[in-house]
Amino acid sequence: MTKKTGTMYFSPTNTTQRICNAVACGMGVNDMQIMDITPHKTRTAIIANIHTISEKIDHLIVGSPVYSGKLPLQVMEVLKSLHGNGKEATAIVVYGNRDYGIALYNMVELLSERGFKIAAAGAYIGQHSYSNIVPVAMGRPDVSDLEKARHLGIKSVHVSKWLSLKDIPFHIDEASKSEKYIALKTVHIEKQCIRCGKCAEKCPVGLLSSDTGQYLNPTSKEQCIGCMACVYACMQKAKVAEINPTIKLAMEKKLGQASRERKEPLILLA
After folding, report:
1. pLDDT digits 0-9 by tens, 107-165
2. What are the residue ranges of helices labelled H in the chain?
3. Cβ distance 151 to 26 under 8 Å?
4. What is the pLDDT at residue 54?
């Protein structure tokens, strides 16, 4: 393996990271440059130095979760700042077994516009962010998912043709065609909190106080992307998803089919 490979992922609950690492493993990468753009400070640093990617790597594995059938705004902001300069890229999105919407299409579109050649692409399944409310894709990515990600990496090493937008399927539904992101907010349970600061550390948007664990202000609550990183990080169960019976019923209806069936990863090579 002579290509210098890097992974760049947004992974609040480490699910997308696992898929990207498996792809890199399949490529035979030993000395991989890791760019975890989940923290706000990392995204800021990459945007501030637009040549970070093209100077250090030959092949970039890009990974992102899917929110409301779309890429998170935080990921799109970073992708728009990149300069590929003819380097290769593998585009990966991870969704909660319901629908990947337009996320993969938009990722390939943005990478292509920024000068990357798309060697491979994939849509993988991860445990749904709201699975503590409606169990969906529990335990995924599992061994089979990770093996398929590794297989994608193996196949992508020696490609000589590139994917184009016409090769990328997409699904337009009410969520993906809307510019809005529907996100459950979290509730802070004061009596459970030990003020360890882990929730604030894990919040990818920097919305929580490290002293109290609560939203910094009312505006911060509105900016919450519903990734549930703070919920997963809190061992004291001081963070829970804000939900009422009406919302729960709506979620059960929306995620009902996804909770009953198993979708398999989509793997795309030219």
Report:
1. 999 999 999 999 999 999 999 999 988 999 999 999 999 999 999 999 999 898 999 99
2. 15-26, 40-48, 52-56, 73-79, 103-113, 143-156, 174-177, 198-202, 218-223, 229-233, 245-254, 256-260
3. yes
4. 67
Spell out the alpha helix ranges (H) of 58-165: 73-79, 103-113, 143-156
- Residues 6 or more apart in contact with residue 187 via CB below 8 angstroms: 239, 240, 241, 242
Domains of the chain: 5-174+264-269 (3.40.50.360), 186-242 (3.30.70.20)
pLDDT (tens digit per residue) in 161-192:
999 999 999 999 888 888 888 888 888 999 99
Closest-CA residue to 75 (of 253, 225, 235, 245)? 225
pTM above 0.90, yes or no: yes
- The whole-angstrom separation of Cα 115 and Cα 1 is 23
- Residue 216 CA: distances (Å) to CA of 61, 66, 207: 34, 26, 6
Q: What's the N-to-C CA distance of the chain in angstroms? A: 21
Q: Which of 146, 91, 128 is nearest to 255 (CA)?
A: 128
Radius of gyration for the chain, computed over Cα atoms and rounded to the nearest angstrom: 18
| Tokens linked to 112 | 């292509």
Instruction: Report the pLDDT averaged over residues 209-213.
Output: 93
Task: List C-alpha distances in Å: 179 to 176, 182, 250, 252.
Answer: 8, 10, 20, 23
**Which two structure tokens, joined as six digits, stand for 180?**
């809005």
Structure tokens at 54: 């093209």
